[in-house]
Design brief:
With 292 residues, the protein is of the alpha/beta class. It folds into 2 domains: 22-174, Rossmann fold (3-Layer(aba) Sandwich); 186-290, N-(1-d-carboxylethyl)-l-norvaline Dehydrogenase, domain 2. Helices cover 51% and strands 11% of the residues. The chain contains 12 helices and 7 strands. The chain has helices spanning 29-40, 52-60, 68-73, 86-96, 151-163, 176-186, 188-203, 208-234, 238-241, 244-253, 256-273, 279-290, and strands at residues 22-25, 45-48, 76-79, 102-105, 123-129, 143-148, 167-170. Strand 1 (22-25), helix 1 (29-40) and strand 2 (45-48) form a beta-alpha-beta unit. The longest helix is centred in the C-terminal third of the chain and has 27 residues, at 208-234. The radius of gyration is 25 Å and the shape is elongated. The relative contact order is 0.08. The structure holds NADP nicotinamide-adenine-dinucleotide phosphate. NADP nicotinamide-adenine-dinucleotide phosphate is lined by residues 26-31, 49-51, 54, 80-83, 85, 89, 106-108, 127-128, 130-132. The site of NADP nicotinamide-adenine-dinucleotide phosphate (NAP) has 24 residues, from helix 1 and strand 5.
Length: 292
């Protein structure tokens, strides 16, 4: 009789219905938020902190500090540490984690190379597109960029995303910088854009805090318009209306650096609404926005 074949389980695939053990490295803002959200969905999670103070912080959030046993048994280590610490932390973990346990970083700007050579471990990245300023911040409703060459790890990261209510974006490693630049444009650069708008109001004699308080609700209403009607239909302003005279007056009124940013962004707006404008208006606006 042929000997019974023992099934070999992939270390990242626990028995049906169970979730793999996760150790989160770094109990800061994102580490704390991921640990709280995953625990709430009954994932077995512990958090590795470097200091006694860190471990106290972890306990005060109702989370479990990682013991050496948990570190050895974890199937996925999620590195929630500053970018510059990722290579060294990954090197240390490669010595302490169990065989075949995955290393995953959460840094949008880093490639998988930051985790070192795979040496039998699946490597990945799980980068939530949200600004977490406190561990108690909710992650649900945001997107997450996932990158890995390992199918079992991809299945785990996708399951994590689904249960945390994060929309998955798969990012090819070779295009990672372009993806991250887009994320920065939508967040940090939106703040920079607001500072330009505040400066324009300053030119009209309005104080910075008063200007920001007035412009924030306007920006929110514009974001709501984009969310419900998309980019081209969510756009408002003189370019959409084909009002060349108003655009010319704006350019004349603004200080040079602000006018340059206005001109650049208005050219982009024009591209969005070009099919809806009469050809002569489109030509006038194109000329006006190209002039220096
Ligand atoms: N916050 C966000 O909105 C956000 C969003 C997406 C991605 N991320 C990414 O998540 C990672 C962490 O960001 P964060 O905002 O959570 O930072 P953070 O609040 O400063 O937390 C980082 C934690 O890493 C640990 N740590 C600090 N320096 C370390 C070092 N040299 N070696 C090992 N561990 C160290 C500390 O935890 P212990 O004291 O517990 O050891 C610290 O609390 C970054 O890669 C960031 O790009 C953050």
């Amino acid at each position: 009789m042929a000997p019974a074949r023992r099934s070999v389980r992939n270390p990242l695939s626990p028995p049906r219905g169970q979730r793999p053990k996760i150790v989160i490295i770094g109990g800061g803002r994102l580490g704390g938020a991921l640990a709280l959200s995953l625990s709430a969905q009954r994932w077995p999670v512990s958090v590795l902190s470097r200091t006694e103070e860190g471990r106290r912080r972890v306990r005060s959030l109702g989370l479990k500090p990682a013991t050496p046993k948990e570190l050895a048994e974890a199937r996925v280590a999620l590195l929630c540490v500053p970018e510059k610490a990722v290579p060294e932390v990954a090197r240390e973990l490669a010595r302490t984690l169990g065989r075949g346990a995955a290393l995953v970083h959460c840094a949008g700007a880093l490639s998988l190379k930051a985790l070192g050579a795979p040496r039998g471990r699946p490597l990945g990245s799980f980068h939530p597109l949200c600004a977490v300023s406190d561990p108690r911040d909710s992650l649900a409703g945001n997107a997450v960029a996932i990158s890995t060459r390992s199918r079992p790890l991809k299945a785990v990261l996708r399951r994590m995303a689904r249960e945390l209510e994060l929309q998955v974006l798969e990012v090819p490693e070779a295009r990672r910088a372009a993806y991250h630049a887009g994320a920065v444009l939508s967040a940090g650069c939106a703040v920079a854009l607001m500072s330009v708008a505040v400066e324009a109001l300053g030119h009209a004699g309005i104080a910075e805090d008063e200007a920001l308080a007035a412009l924030l609700p306007l920006m929110r209403s514009s974001v709501r318009g984009m969310a419900s009607r998309g980019l081209a239909n969510g756009l408002t302003g003189p370019v959409v209306r084909g009002d060349t005279a108003v655009v010319a007056a704006h350019l004349a009124a603004l200080p040079p650096e602000v006018a340059e940013i206005y001109r650049l962004l208005s050219r982009r707006a024009l591209r969005l609404v070009a099919p809806r404008l009469p050809p002569e208006v489109l030509a006038d606006l194109t000329k006006l926005l190209s002039e220096r």
